[in-house]
Amino acid sequence: MLAGAMSSRADIRIEPDTPENLEATTEEELLPLYKTMLSIRRLEEASAKAYSVGKIGGFLHLAIGQEAVCTGAVAALRPEDYITSTYREHGHIYARGVSARAILAEMWGKKTGVVKGLGGSMHMFSKEHNFLGGHGIVGGHVPIAVGAAFKAKYHGEKRVSAVFFGDGSATIGGFAEGLALAALWKLPVVFICENNQYSMGTPLYRTTAAPDITQRALAHDMDRDRFDGDDVIKVKRRIALAVERARETNRPTLIEVRTYRFRGHSMSDPGLYRTREEVAEWKKGDPLVRAKRRLIEELGVDEEKIKAIAAEVKDEIADAVRFADTSPASDSYLPYVIKE
Amino acid sequence: MPTMNIIQAVNNALRIQMAAEPKSIILGEDVGKFGGVFRATSGLYDEFGEERVIDTPLAEAGIIGAAIGMAVYGMRPIPEIQFSDFIFPAFDQIVNELAKFRYRSGGQYPCPVVIRTPVGGGIRGGHYHSQSPEALFIHTPGLKVVIPSNPYDAKGMLLASLRQDDPVLFMEPKKIYRASRGEVPEEDYTVELGKAKVVREGNQVTLIAYGAMVSVIEEAAAKAAEIGISCEVIDLRTLMPFDIETITESVSKNGRAVMVHEAPQTCGFGAEVCTSLYERCMAHLEAPIQRVCGFDTPFPYSLEHEYLPNADRVLGAIRKTLEW
Predict the structure, then answer these.
(1) Which of A140, A145, A302, B257 is the most exposed place for a label (fewest CB within 10 A)?
(2) What is the mean pLDDT of residues B53-59?
(3) Structural domain for B7, as ranges
(4) How far apart are CA B7 and CA A314, in angstroms?
(5) Given a cut of 70, is residue A274 above it in pLDDT?
(6) What is the overall mean pLDDT for chain A?
(7) What is the pLDDT of residues A13-31, one digit of tens each?
(8) What is the CATH number of the domain that holds B143?
């Protein structure tokens, strides 16, 4: 059962009217998304390196392998839409437009960080980007995203509230209550479960009797969708369907994107609960490799162009590391507890 | 000026807020047509409609979580938790999310949610309709905690809570919801948060309480006066931030103090008040500060009268401070 549960890469189209050409794309569309995914990966690799020499304290959770989910999903949203995320949020906030400098400086605990170095890796916010965290309490953020959607509907704003969470969230009360309220009040929420197969070190089949997370939508007469998250264009298209439904009709959707983190839960996790073979199998679906292959083989993009992008990304992250290294340390937290 | 009880004063404040501020909505269990289990939202559903006075499922974490999401983007939600005993499913939302939102976002996202909830015993509600969990929330940085003792303050402090930018837990003492009556102006007014009130002046012993226990210490002060003991009575009104200046001044003057609350004594708010007083007026104290509190037990049903502090227990503590 263990092997079966983890190796099935089901791509189930639940929507009967899903168009067939969802993965068709162009260089103009895919190239920038590839660049975003590459930046996220390099940013996280740089943060892992910094963690190992003590520049980042506490905990660091990387999403290497999952980049197509945050990148594709954010690309399906408009800037005015709200995004609420988990503690594994580096990719989401970067895809949303916050600079690598502000993200790394935050992890380094520097004053120039996106929340002034107060929060670190897990707790980033940017009101300017409608990015509502960065949440360290698993599932606790889900009803908050529902409240943001309530506000959007209340004011007739046609904004969508997208909330990311992991498969570990799917069993906790905050998620269940948020889902119930969004369905009951018909709110424009897109619930995006990044199912990376493990709730920390525990496989899905040991945490839920119903490993198809989207079955929870049935209890609330909610729309649902479920697919693999290895192709950034597919992720963007499938999520766009739910986003537009939310925007136009206020109907929420529960989406499960099946993905995999190539590294452990956090930096202290060597991942002994899974086999090398399993990791190798999932790495075949590396979203960066896939996107690069599509660019070269399917869209005929010159390899030199892709190398140039890689060089740009390398410079961007090196600059961000220098910026974080040389920024002043965070020096005050008292002004933010209450207003007065 | 009309006379109101606390329920009517709360209802009146909510009506004023809802009429003046379209960004305010009320949400909670049975707050709509039913008008709330204690009728605090009576009539508001008819006046402001189902879009603004919203019945929720039994989902306290969802209620508070949703209110947070509304508030960070500019709304002024007023969630009701039907009994403060039912607040615990939302404890995570209040402690980890609501109270820390301003801090976590480096000041980008203030979170002005005002949670209303009935608190305390005195209605024979038993274990789960009588508790006083205020200390758990006073212990939560980022949150303000208010407990009024009379209709005038209830209206004025609720409106004040709704017009500042931090989250507030507004606890309404259910024992005196209807028993406490007084003149309340019809118009809009506020009572400043963070200020205690000297209810009765006296020069021998300072009595400190809040919420439903204020009338208990007033009664004790009256009984003490009959036997020639002069007590000063202070209503704290706001528990976080609490008015250390007013009580320091009074206790420094009198040298004797009794702290009263109905929550269990151990780690109750009285412990903090007493420690703060020892830190500030040790040199003026003539006797150890006495505490008269609920006991360290679950809240009893049939023996509620034994559990809750009363005037005689307070009088005993007053004597103790004088005889020490």
Answers:
(1) A302
(2) 98
(3) 3-183
(4) 64
(5) yes
(6) 93
(7) 455 455 567 889 999 999 9
(8) 3.40.50.970
Supply the pLDDT for residue A21.
Answer: 73
Residue A249 has pLDDT above 90, yes or no: yes
Q: Which of chain A's residues have a Cβ under 8 Å away from the Cβ of B105?
A: 115, 125, 127, 133, 336
Indicate yes or no: CB of A181 within 8 angstroms of CB of B66. Answer: yes
Task: Tell which of B183, B218, B250 closes a domain.
Answer: B183
Residues A180, B144: C-beta atoms closer than 8 Å = no
Residue A86 to chain B, least CA–CA distance (Å): 13
Kindly indicate the confidence band of residue A333, based on its pLDDT and cuts at 50, 70 and 90. Answer: confident
Kindly determine whether residue B69 and residue A335, on different chains, have CB atoms separated by under 8 Å. Answer: no
Contact B102 A148 (CB under 8 A): no
Output the CA–CA distances (angstroms, integers) from residue B286 to A71, B152, B283, in the order listed: 69, 35, 8
User: Catalytic residue numbers of B?
Assistant: 129
Q: Report how many domains make up chain B.
A: 2
Clarify whether residues B173 and B202 are in a common domain: no
B62–A145: do the CB atoms touch at under 8 Å? no
CATH code: domain of residue B268: 3.40.50.920
Is the pLDDT at A3 greater than 80, yes or no?
no
pTM for the model: 0.95
For chain A, which domains are there?
28-275+287-323 (3.40.50.970)
- Separation of alpha carbons A170 and A204, rounded Å: 10
Does A187 contact B at CB distance below 8 Å? no
- Chain A: residue whose CA lies nearest to B73: A148
Same domain, B177 and B211: no
Tokens representing residue A95 in the block: 């895809």
- Which of A148, A173, A336 has its CB closest to that of B69? A148
A111 contact residues in B (CB cutoff 8 A): none
Distance from CA of A114 to the nearest CA of B (A): 8
B102 with B236, same domain: the answer is: no
- The mean pLDDT of B141-156, rounded to a whole number, is 98
**A202-209 LR contacts (CB < 8 Å, sep 24+):** A202/A273, A203/A2, A203/A5, A203/A6, A203/A273, A203/A274, A204/A5, A204/A6, A204/A167, A205/A1, A205/A2, A205/A5, A207/A167, A207/A168, A207/A171, A208/A167, A208/A170, A208/A171
Do B233 and B107 sit in the same domain of this protein? Answer: no
Q: Do A150 and B57 touch (CB under 8 A)?
A: no
User: How confident is the model over A195-220, as a mean pLDDT?
Assistant: 94
Global ipTM: 0.94
Please write the tens of the pLDDT for every residue from B163-202: 999 999 999 999 999 999 999 999 999 999 999 999 999 9
Same domain, B179 and B201: no
* Chain A CB within 8 Å of residue B43 CB: no
Q: Are residues B136 and B97 in the same domain?
A: yes
Contact A127 B108 (CB under 8 A): yes
Least Cα distance to A136 among A160, A154, A115, A110 occurs for A115
Q: What is the pLDDT of residues A58-80, one digit of tens each?
A: 999 999 999 999 999 999 999 99
What's the rounded Cα separation, in Å, for the pair A96 and B236?
Answer: 47
Whether the CB-CB separation of B47 and B73 falls below 8 Å is answered with no
> Is some CB atom of chain A closer than 8 A to the CB atom of B94?
no
A143 contacts on B by Cβ (under 8 Å): 61-62, 64-66, 68-69, 93
Residue A120 at interface with chain B, using a CB cutoff of 8 Å: no
**Residue A238 · residue A227 · CB < 8 Å:** yes
Tell me if chain B has a CB within 8 Å of the CB of A313.
Answer: no
Query: Is the pLDDT at A6 greater than 60, yes or no?
Result: no
